[in-house]
């Protein structure tokens, strides 16, 4: 089984090289914005059609290498397909640039990368540690993304590598994982990760943004800019810690089962005070982190139908809304009492076994997920 992973590496760049990279990023972003206009004028998101419509003009206007123009067209085509439901068109900023095997190469002996720019090829050393070196050792990557952090004024390159990982055999333990807002994750083997701190952080940044936006001064705008992305980075770090703890509690050959929560925001109506947490709930990111960490250790990840997993009694299978009272689960039929999230995780595990017994595949993986459906994951 192939695992696709991105390795983030800092680049060692001098003043002259930084100027060239910034100019290249600016031209790439301007090219993307021009291509976006062509896409909207001709009502197409097909990259082949876009290439016929604007390839020559873009190449002559911005002086980009042929393959950088192709990457710009592909980026616009992909972005417009994802954003077509939004009312406002997307504007591309000079913060990243897609690279392929003709515009990027990696030299393991020198630990450097070669990137195509408007001033020719630049060879840039990687400022990385043993962790990144271990991931890149023996690899021959063919794609990457050049990134510029405007806050720190540093350049990074995200290198995509493919790794062969053993596919998990049958017969391992099955662990159900319930993802939520007040408890970010609860497992059937006894792990529980509170979401109280996440709720506190969300509220803090929401109030701070509201105050600064209301104030509207130049100083407030500068502070908003400095705070941009800080909440997201904090939540990403927390999800990494949770996913690592869950995967470390399993052994190679085990199976992690989660609910398929696609479109849950559209299905659930929240009261006004809970909308902030519902719409900022990073359940998809947590699921993806669990997936790739599990794949590295030979642990399967599958998704099952989420219906009634929080309302069903794990002892007598009685299903009713009245069974759940906040964090407490009390069965109205047999009187079973337990923690609601642990009960949900246990039911998720049970749904997996029922799907296997019926011979029916599970619901497919969530949007953005790379794991396989149940029927394939079990070979």
From TrEMBL:
Keyword set includes Repeat: no
Claim: DNA-binding is one of the keywords in the record: yes
InterPro entries for this protein: Cas12f1-like_TNB, RNA-guided_DNA_endo/Transpos, Transposase
Organism classification: Bacteria, Bacillati, Bacillota, Clostridia, Neomoorellales
Recorded family membership: In the C-terminal section; belongs to the transposase 35 family. In the N-terminal section; belongs to the transposase 2 family.
Residue span(s) of domain Probable transposase IS891/IS1136/IS1341: 164-251
Every Cas12f1-like TNB domain range: 283-348
Species the sequence originates in: Calderihabitans maritimus
PANTHER family reported in the protein's UniProt record: TRANSPOSASE, TRANSPOSASE, PROBABLY IS605-TNPB FAMILY
GO BP terms: DNA recombination; transposition
GO MF term set: DNA binding
Keywords: DNA recombination, DNA-binding, Transposition
The protein, known as: Transposase, IS605 OrfB family
């Amino acid at each position: 089984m192939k695992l696709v992973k991105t390795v983030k590496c800092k680049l060692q760049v001098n003043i002259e090289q930084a100027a060239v990279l910034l100019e290249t990023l600016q031209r790439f972003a301007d090219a993307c914005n021009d291509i976006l206009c062509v896409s909207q004028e001709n009502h197409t998101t097909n990259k082949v059609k876009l290439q016929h419509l604007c390839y020559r003009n873009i190449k002559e206007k911005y002086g980009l290498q042929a393959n950088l123009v192709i990457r710009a067209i592909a980026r616009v085509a992909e972005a417009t397909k994802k954003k077509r439901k939004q009312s406002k068109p997307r504007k591309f900023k000079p913060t990243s640039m897609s690279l392929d095997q003709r515009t990027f190469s990696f030299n393991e002996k020198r630990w450097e990368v070669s990137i195509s720019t408007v001033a020719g090829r630049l060879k840039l050393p990687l400022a990385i540690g043993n962790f990144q070196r271990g991931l890149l050792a023996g690899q021959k990557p063919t794609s990457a993304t050049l990134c510029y952090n405007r806050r720190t004024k540093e350049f990074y390159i995200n290198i995509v590598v493919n790794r062969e990982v053993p596919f998990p055999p049958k017969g391992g333990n099955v662990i159900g994982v319930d993802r939520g807002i007040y408890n970010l994750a609860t497992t059937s083997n006894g792990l529980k990760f509170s979401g109280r701190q996440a709720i506190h952080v969300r509220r803090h940044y929401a109030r701070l943004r509201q105050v600064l936006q209301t104030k509207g001064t130049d100083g407030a705008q500068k502070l908003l800019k400095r705070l941009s992305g800080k909440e997201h980075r904090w939540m990403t770090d927390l999800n990494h810690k949770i996913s690592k703890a869950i995967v470390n509690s399993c052994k190679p050959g085990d199976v992690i089962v989660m609910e398929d929560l696609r479109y849950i925001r559209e299905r659930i109506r929240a009261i006004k005070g809970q909308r902030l947490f519902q719409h900022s709930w990073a359940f998809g990111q947590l699921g993806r982190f669990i997936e790739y960490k599990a794949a590295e250790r030979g642990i399967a990840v599958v998704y099952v139908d989420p219906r009634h997993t929080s309302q069903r009694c794990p002892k007598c299978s009685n299903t009713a809304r009245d069974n759940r009272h906040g964090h407490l689960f009390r069965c109205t039929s047999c009187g079973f009492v337990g923690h609601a999230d642990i009960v949900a995780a246990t039911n998720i595990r049970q749904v997996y076994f029922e799907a296997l017994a019926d011979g029916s595949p599970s619901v497919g993986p969530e949007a953005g997920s790379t794991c396989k459906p149940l029927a394939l994951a079990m070979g």
